[in-house]
Write a structure and sequence with these properties.
The structure is a single chain. The protein is 58% helix and 10% strand. With 213 residues, it is mainly α. The strands form two sheets. A three-stranded antiparallel sheet has the order 4-3-5. A two-stranded antiparallel sheet has the order 1-2.
Length: 213
């Protein structure tokens, strides 16, 4: 077991806004005056709630039309997956792969990773805390690449306006998908990775107690 002292044991808290380390008893950061906490309050509860909401929105985001194309009086609705299939059939393989990765794969991986992190922080999953911390930082990094579909639809909706010949309009799935991205980003921000190390430390202490017995 590592005997190095933890900042929390010394009453030290890192400001979530500016990163300055101060005594938690001061209650507010002396630099930016943000509230100080040894750990983010209700971190797991908020993360679970945001993940549940994101999971609920993920279903309409993939099954409702994300883009409506009005061409010569006819209306064609496209979901995310049908758009991927269309680009693939057009042999635009890089575009199809990028959209599938950013709009389907990454949200699933983000939700799965955050669920795993929450379970590990609650002691329901066993994994290396260093590996889990890396997964958390990767999850935060990937979040900014999850809006590719929304950007494409927005650009097309702004540029393609040809009266009765061709119009492209955003569909209801665009709002649901935006909600999924925003909620998973908030979930990653709400999760406190230090809880993983707290749980790991607690297990080490329990192992030492059992060994002494």
């Amino acid at each position: 077991m590592n005997d190095a002292p933890y900042a929390a044991d010394e009453g030290l808290a890192s400001c979530d806004l500016c990163g300055k380390v101060s005594l938690a008893e001061e209650e507010h950061c002396p630099r930016c005056h943000s509230p100080l906490h040894l750990r983010k309050p209700h971190s797991l509860q908020r993360t679970w709630a945001l993940l549940a909401s994101a999971a609920c929105l993920y279903i309409p985001a993939n099954f409702l039309p994300i883009m409506t194309v009005e061409k010569f009086g006819e209306t064609e609705n496209n979901t995310i997956l049908s758009g991927v299939v269309t680009f693939w059939q057009m042999q635009a393989y890089p575009v199809a792969i990028v959209i599938f990765t950013a709009s389907v794969l990454i949200p699933i991986l983000k939700v799965t990773a955050l669920v795993w992190l929450c379970l590990a922080a609650q002691g329901r999953a066993d994994a290396s805390p260093k590996a889990l911390t890396r997964i958390y930082h990767i999850t935060e990094l990937l979040g900014r690449w999850s809006m590719v579909d929304i950007f494409v639809v927005s650009i097309l909706a702004c540029l393609v306006r040809m009266g009765t010949v061709l119009n492209i309009l955003p569909g209801p799935a665009a709002l649901s998908f935006s909600g999924v991205v925003i909620l998973t980003m908030f979930a990653a921000m709400s999760f406190d990775p230090r809880l993983i190390w707290d749980r790991h430390r607690s297990r080490e202490r329990e192992a030492l107690v059992h060994a002494d017995e």
